[in-house]
Amino acid sequence: SQKIEQNSEALNIQEGKTATLTCNYTNYSPAYLQWYRQDPGRGPVFLLLIRENEKEKRKERLKVTFDTTLKQSLFHITASQPADSATYLCALRDDKIIFGKGTRLHILP
Amino acid sequence: GAVVSQHPSRVICKSGTSVKIECRSLDFQATTMFWYRQFPKQSLMLMATSNEGSKATYEQGVEKDKFLINHASLTLSTLTVTSAHPEDSSFYICSASLSGGGDTQYFGPGTRLTVL
Questions:
Q1: Is A98's CB within 8 Å of B46's CB?
Q2: pLDDT tens for residues B16-50?
């Protein structure tokens, strides 16, 4: 069955820099990947969905890429701010929606 | 739009008691609702998928007699943890997907269950 790997458990980035988070999957390319943000003690919030035939998707300071050759999605936050500090989860559909463990992002002021 | 609420947000109970958690879609009808459990620093683990008016589909390893799910209407699903034990202590999160909205899920704020 499909597995998701979010390589970094935690990532520290200086405020103003671009944060880049990685999501790798192991098997076939899913029809799409999703990215969610989760704050401590809260449920995840949907951010972006990128389809298999899309190379890149943008939403304000967020950018997601999808490379089916590398079996990887990258999630970028440009001009990062301390308020961007949270855990970011990627998700895809196998026989059900599965989530990665997430990457805890800390934006340092 | 697409707001999901959960109640209670936090509950502490004694071992052996049952706890009911409610999940409501506030501004949309949710044909399908999902229940997840999340342990600290772990991923969301899907427990069951609930469709309005039918029996829930449980994931492998999840005891359906222990985690009772009822999806009586298009806006309400409940999860009852029966005879709770300390190992059931966890963060329980529900989500709902919009009819025809694909797989994007809208999550509730979660319920922190602590069983003493």
A1: yes
A2: 999 999 999 998 888 889 999 999 888 899 999 98
